């Protein structure tokens, strides 16, 4: 046996032990019943079954039936040690039973030698090569000894019977070794597969850990970058304002710059906290078409100032069970981003539809396509191509969608049609 297979047998519990033991019990029961029928059908050749033979076969069937019931009662709580002990007892009992049935039948044509095949199969399946070879040798020795013993008591010997028994012994050798080889290969492959899965899991966990560290690094870098600029502006403005030679008009201008940058810093901090520490969901039944109509109304003035038109294409009733303020903030971010990306004279379309158990909300703008190089980073915090943007709008919107059991993705990206689609699954829909 290979080292890997040996390690498997010693350290790794065999799956389905109850099922394996049950299969051998059922095989023994079936073979036992068939042997009774064969003996009764060929009584003219084998002789009528004697009381000891009937009693032994009945005892075997009863014990196997009880063992099968016991295994069923154990569920999946059979240990490998219990399975091995049971196999030892089963193999030994099959040898003893075969010897007794052969003795009481007292014929050279003995159908009960087939029970030894079950013992060999069970040994090859549960144990190593050495025990399998010993079991085969014991079975062949028993068969050959019986033929010798029988013809010693009932001469003359028939050469054809020795030939048949010899062929049976060879069949047992080939059968036992082949089954052991196949089972050994199966266990070795299973061990390799287990090791591969463990290695894959370890690699996956390491990659996830590295990705988390990289994400934290990018997040920290983004925070530092976004905070540094307004802080630098505030610092330089205040330094200029308090300089003794600064004129009053310039001083007021510097204070105004400091105040504006302070508000920008406050807004950045609020956006970052919204993304990094979202509040728990407080779901309530709402109509998404009403909420989207409200978003269109509150952003229409800002869109008009940029000569952008907002068009709503909504179904009459789109019930959902959501955190209305959080979802409103997410949709507001999507529409404001769309307004910023739409050129003068362009159009923004708000579409919403319900298909099966999925609610889809689309925000489409007629601006230029997002460059291919930027696509992997569009949902990354602090990634922005706008001069005054924080790069948190899409990240916040996607976090809100995921919190509601859905997602946000870029569904279309071509010049004149850039669409972000938010999907909410049945867990966020109100079916009441």
Provide keyphrases for this structure:
elongated, disordered N terminus, alpha+beta, 2 domains, about 65% helix, five-stranded mixed β-sheet
Please explain how this structure is put together.
There is one protein chain. It is elongated and about 135 Å long. Helix content is 66%, strand content 11%. It has 2 domains: 3-202; 284-428, Heat Shock Protein 90, CATH 3.30.565.10. The chain has helices at residues 3-11, 17-41, 43-46, 51-74, 80-105, 114-126, 129-153, 159-241, 248-276, 288-305, 324-341, 393-403, and strands spanning 284-287, 309-314, 319-322, 347-355, 358-365, 407-414, 417-424. Strand 6 (407-414) and strand 7 (417-424) form a beta hairpin. The chain has 432 residues and is α+β, with helices and mostly antiparallel strands. The two termini are 64 Å apart. The strands form 2 sheets. It has a 5-stranded mixed sheet with strand order 2-4-5-7-6, with helices on one face. A two-stranded antiparallel ribbon has the order 1-3.
Largest sheet: 5 strands, mixed
Strand order of the largest sheet: 2-4-5-7-6
The helix-and-strand class reads alpha+beta
Summed up, the domain count is: 2
Helix-strand string: HHHHHHHHHEHEEHEEHEE
Percentage of residues in strands: 5-15%
Number of strands: 7
Q: What gap, in angstroms, lies between the N and C termini?
A: 64 Å
Enumerate how many helices there are, as a single number.
Answer: 12
Shape: elongated
Contiguous uncertain segments of 5+ residues? 1-15
List the helices and strands and how they pair.
Elements: H1 3-11, H2 17-41, H3 43-46, H4 51-74, H5 80-105, H6 114-126, H7 129-153, H8 159-241, H9 248-276, E1 284-287, H10 288-305, E2 309-314, E3 319-322, H11 324-341, E4 347-355, E5 358-365, H12 393-403, E6 407-414, E7 417-424
Helix pairs in contact: 1-8, 2-4, 2-6, 4-5, 5-6, 6-7, 6-8, 7-8, 8-9, 10-11, 11-12
